[in-house]
Amino acid sequence: MTGKGGVGKSTVSAALALVAARAGKRVLVCEVNAQERVAALLGAPLAGPVIQEAAPGVFTVNVTPHEAMREYGVMVLRFRTIYDAVFENRLVRYFLRVVPSLAELVMLGKILNEARAEEGGRPRWDLVVVDAPATGHAVQLLRVPSALVDTVPGGPLRHDADWMEAMLVDPARTSVALVTLPEEMPVNEAIELDAQVRGVLGMHRGALFVNAMPETRFSPGEEARLAALVEAPPPLGPAARAARLQALRAGQAARYLTRARAALDLPATVIPLLPIVEWGRAAVERVADAIEAGAGGGPA
Amino acid sequence: MNGIKESVGPRRVAVCVGPGGVGKTTVAAALALDRALAGARALVCTIDPARRLANALGLSTLGNVESRVPEHKFAEVGLHPKGELFAMMLDVKRTWDELVTRHAPDPHRRERILRNRLYQQMSSALAGSQEYMAMEKLYELATDRDYDVIVLDTPPTAHALDFLEAPDRILDFLGNETARALLGPVAGAGKLGLRLAQLGGGYIAKTLARFTGQEVLADLGDFLQGFQGMYDGFKDRAAAVHALLSRPEVGFVLVTSPTPVAIEETLAFHERLHAESMPIAGLVANRVTPDLWPGDGPLPGAEALSRALAGVGGGDDALAARLAGTLAEHQALAAAERRALDRLFAESEAPRALVPRLESDVHDLAGLARLAERL
Questions:
Q1: At what angle do helices B117-125 and B129-144 cross, to 10 degrees?
Q2: Is the N or the C terminus of chain A less surrounded, counting Cβ atoms within 10 Å?
Q3: What is the DSSP letter of A198?
Q4: Which of A232, A217, A242 is nearest to B312 (CA)?
Q5: For the segment B125-134, what is each residue's pLDDT rounded down to a tens digit?
Q6: Least Cα separation, residue B225 to chain A (angstroms)
Q7: What does pTM read for this prediction?
């Protein structure tokens, strides 16, 4: 799940996980070195870097470079004591911080490792939702394996980059969903991002989520009548002004939704703008309801 | 209380900071336009403007240089500036290259750095690189040019601290003595391996090389070696930028939207600027839902509205019900935003401005001028 900052990626990720869990699936939601939000949205304590169940069937984790590096290091080196001696070394920490793609690689590695893990002969997770960083950073994250395949001739890093890249570009296993608001900048970014997903990443694009869509509440005739009343004394004037602002916003949103639909050849799920002041589990359940209603059933 | 324009007016540099997606670029452009209208030679340096705003500023051509917003763009919308407005878009990679070119002792060294793979990645991808270069460009513009005022837009940062810490963090990377001693100079990968094995904790370096491959370490060594001797120049420059930011001729304008997430981030920014004694020139709350209902009395129900509608052309119960619901929803949102903003305003004495939603969604010079009126 990716899109411009502030469009509601975490909320939509959490809601999508609930939709899948309602259908009996076991879901993991991964945040990527973020200010953790998903667990709290589901009404659970923050998970940190350890996978925790936030709602029935929905597990969350915040993947951080430090923890992911440790897990990866222990996996490659087999012994925690060696890892601690090497990776807790100050100089090594410095390298890990500055070798640009390493942090991305180990975080992505941890996520994809969960996605391919099996338990008792079946996949550990039916669905892994990645609440990815915003547009540019998401592309940076997802292109790391292919960049390494291009530049690193051999060794454990290359080996891991190979299977990760294969998994990312396999449309049967991985799909990119774009999240946007029906506003100018988010829609423009979604369109540019879509081109990058196709061109730079070569990944399958599965869905477009248009979040917080205001409803068309007043007919053109009513709008015209209300426009003449905005200067009227209360109660009519203030009510007409509120209605006019709602109508303006709905009109703008409709234009940007049309633009997104025309430019992006993707199945669109439109999530209505909900009058929610406090965001929590109940609110996310409502978004999940909207996704179920909009998509005509659970996700594929 | 004075407005933000009055507070920014006497300053030479205004830096717009705040969370992503709140309209920083638009506010920055409006502030610069306002000064240009009043007679100043004003520059706005943007990071990633919306296309229509870029067009309005004549920024359709990219590049790391300033260009003057042409006369006819103003005339088209009936504006007659007494001064001049310039605009530019920051090119992070090019700013890095310029910095390296300025500090490199000779062309050979310059080329060695510019061609290094790690440098190429770092200059576009290293976290904080964009913030660092925004600061660097600001310093260059503030010291080498003769603008009356420069308004800087800043990148949308995930963490409020990135902005002020980025230069130090990147300099820490460039100036790490141990790393340089460990990695350079190297003639070839084999020699590097030998050196790594010889130096403190041989197996540490070897294990590291097993992860990253020798090439990556060789690149890093080459890169750090290339920077030898240039580091002090970089460091002095960063210190000068930091000093510039604390001067009274500089003012930070905090831009936010009234959502809880944006307010949290803005509070973190504010705290940080305050702790660093950076001068705060104003707070702009953008896209605010206006309070439409006078006084504290109860909101009208559908019946009252239907009666009122009857007085102006005909009652309509269905419309009245929707009107009542819309007004109630609107006012609940306005109240929630106001509560969130009060938390921010309680922290600061700085001038503040509330810019209503929609009115801030501007794409031309006339719209920017209207926005400036609100500041």
A1: 80
A2: C
A3: I
A4: A232
A5: 666 778 888 8
A6: 15
A7: 0.83
